[in-house]
Amino acid sequence: MRLQHVLLFAAVCVPTWYLFTYFWPSLLLSVYKRAILARGFGGGPVPMNTLATVPQELFADPLHPPASAPKVATTGVNRDTLYTVGWLDLARGPQVLQVPDMAGRYYSVQFTDPSKNLNFAYVGSRTTGTGAGSFLVCGPGWNGGVPEGTARIDAPRNSVLVVGRVYVADLDDLPVAHALATQIRLEPLGGREVGSNA
């Protein structure tokens, strides 16, 4: 009788563990996506192919957030980097990521495939330097031209999570860091001068 119970327990637990391990990251990213697209950081929805930065007030006092701030923006207390987030839908066409001159300040912009929770590219002080830059983010199979002076990033899927971080030395540095973070932006490729595809 005990062996039957052990086998039954194993037959239930092993598949449950695999399902949890496989689906949990995707489920969390799905909840995060809905929260960002619906409420942002409390200032209203963040449209697809747009980036939003944590408000200075929320960063300065995360333990006493404004009533409008959603739970997703207040669950972690981060005291040294400002977050900028957004979701890309590259089926609508490539997006150009513009970053300002960070003048030696640490920053990073990570690109994540939400279907696998896999980071496939980084832009930032450790990978591309701290100077101003322009990066074309393309969906799978896109073969158009790349604007001159723009680096190409190929995404494995059309849906991409973008998470940017900008270093904040202290509260006195917050306005400068926030101004830089809000200059990290996206714009559609259309209307830009396009050169040969490298």
Could you name the key traits of this structure?
single chain; 198 residues; alpha+beta; Immunoglobulin-like; five-stranded antiparallel beta sheet; four-stranded mixed beta sheet; 4 helices; 9 strands; 27% strand; disordered C terminus
Give an overview in words.
- The strands form 2 sheets. The protein has a 5-stranded antiparallel β-sheet with strand order 1-2-8-4-5. It has a 4-stranded mixed β-sheet with strand order 7-6-3-9, with no helix packed on it.
- The chain has a single domain, classed as Domain of unknown function DUF1254 (Immunoglobulin-like, Sandwich), CATH 2.60.40.
- It has 198 residues and is of the alpha+beta class.
- The C terminus is likely disordered.
CATH architecture: Sandwich
Order of helices and strands: HEHHEEEEEEEHE
Number of domains: 1
* Count of DSSP strands: 9
**What would the CATH topology be?**
Immunoglobulin-like
Low-pLDDT segments: 191-198
Strand order of the largest sheet: 1-2-8-4-5
- Kindly report the name of the CATH homologous superfamily: Domain of unknown function DUF1254
Helix content: 25-40%
| Average predicted confidence as pLDDT | 81
Helical/strand content category: alpha+beta
- What share of residues are in beta strands? 25-35%
Distance between the termini: 68 Å
Tell the overall outline: globular
Q: Look at the structure and give the CATH class.
A: Mainly Beta
Give the biggest sheet. 5 strands, antiparallel
